[in-house]
Amino acid sequence: MKRTAFTNQLLPWLLLAPQLIITFVFFLWPAAQAIRQSFLREDAFGISTQFVGLANFKALTGSAQYLNSLQVTAIFAICVTVLSMGVALLMAVAVDRMIRSTSIYTTLLVWPYAVAPAVAGILWWFIFNPTIGILPYLLEMVGYDWNHMTSKSDAMILVVIASAWKQISYNFLFFVAGLQSIPASLREAAAIDGAGPVRRFFDITFPLLSPTTFFLLVVNIVYAMFDTFSVIDATTEGGPAQATNILVYKVYFDGFVGQNMGSSAAQSVVLMLIVIVLTVVQFRYVEKKVAY
Fold first, then answer.
1. Which pLDDT band holds residue 186 (cuts at 50, 70, 90)?
2. How many structural domains are present in the chain?
3. Is 286 helix (H, G, I), strand (E, B) or coil?
4. Which of 50, 52, 119, 287 has the fewest beta carbons under 10 Å from its own?
5. Which of 223, 180, 224 has the alpha carbon at shortest distance from 205?
6. Which of 145, 149, 122, 120 is nearest to 135 (CA)?
7. pLDDT bracket for residue 100 (50, 70, 90)
8. CB count, 10 Å around CB of 11?
9. Where in the cell is it found (predicted)?
10. Integer Cα distance of 187 and 60 in angstroms
11. What integer is the mean pLDDT of 237-256?
């Protein structure tokens, strides 16, 4: 492979400068500020600042609301990841089996990814609205009284569906690309040997999709823990009774609404560490089972 040699040593750094500046301003600097603030106690206006060490982190371990938020986040992240990846894989397999109109169906299924998370949340809020929504009306016909404003389980179902619907298109694209990269001769050989469609999928197709599945697993967990703030804010605002108050929304609520900057910063640091640990564990242990 031919390597490019720069005669001017400054030129590579100039080419990298825009990306480095963006990374520093929008990622490294805010992270450093959050770590610094997690050791401080500040008033709402930032006038009085007091160093308290690990007091903010210690307070989190004894907070029932924070421990509840941890549990809610775990349930929410697992449900969103499983639902979005499962539905996307099912759709990708269905499209891959089609001979005609594949590009048309692919285009239609990708459109939801262009919808902003807040818009997706409002869309599903209207669909599930107990007063004007179509789905509560249909559910009432079969004897189920839907009300996500008072029912914790209904609220969780709403935010999981809204968040997963937004991510299905992204997962679908990668699964379709992964399926199309699998040689058709392998599945044809298995069919000749008498393997049915289900057997061919689990013995040949799905193992060969393991790199794509592993990548999407990491992406979807990070998405569920970070990028679903807009969905929660547009639908339930963490309610009812903290039933959908995931960690990223609690960071916002405690910091910007409750004006408890120290606790909010400590929560953001813990959330960042959780995501880092999950990612490391996935790459350290889960990736060993991936067949590239």
1. confident
2. 1
3. helix
4. 50
5. 180
6. 145
7. low
8. 10
9. Cell inner membrane; Cell membrane
10. 53
11. 92
Percent of the chain with pLDDT over 90: 48
40-82 tens-digit pLDDT: 888 767 677 888 989 999 999 889 999 999 999 999 999 999 9
| Inter-residue contact 234 to 122 (CB < 8 Å) | yes
> Is 265 within the bounds of a domain?
yes
Taking alpha carbons only, the member of 248, 253, 250 closest to residue 272 is: 248
Q: Where are the alpha helices (DSSP H) in the chain?
A: 10-23, 29-37, 55-61, 64-96, 102-110, 117-127, 134-141, 152-180, 184-192, 197-200, 206-208, 210-222, 229-235, 247-252, 261-284
Which of 281, 276, 218, 274 lies closest to 247, judged by CA? 274
**Among candidates 161, 152, 164, 114, which has minimal Cα distance to 133?**
161
Q: Which CATH number belongs to the domain containing residue 218 in this structure?
A: 1.10.3720.10
Q: Which amino acid is at 199?
A: R
Asked whether residue 206 is domain-assigned, the answer is: yes
Asked, as a colleague might, if the bond just before 183 is cis with ω within 30 of 0, I would say no
Asked if 235 and 162 touch (Cβ cutoff 8 Å), the reply is yes
Would you say residue 11 lies in a domain?
A: no
Q: Burial level of 35, CB count in 10 A (0-12/13-18/19+)?
A: middle
Q: Are 144 and 164 in contact (CB under 8 A)?
A: no
Look at residue 143 and tell me if it is in a domain. yes
Which structural domain range is residue 261 located in? 79-288
Nearest by Cα to 244 from 266, 228, 265:
228
Gap between the Cα atoms of 207 and 213, Å rounded:
9
Q: Report whether 89 contacts 210 (CB < 8 A).
A: no
Closest C-alpha among 144, 165, 288, 275 to residue 231: 165
The dihedral sign for the CA sequence 48, 54, 59, 60: positive
pTM: 0.88
Number of other residues whose CB lies within 10 A of the CB of residue 80:
26
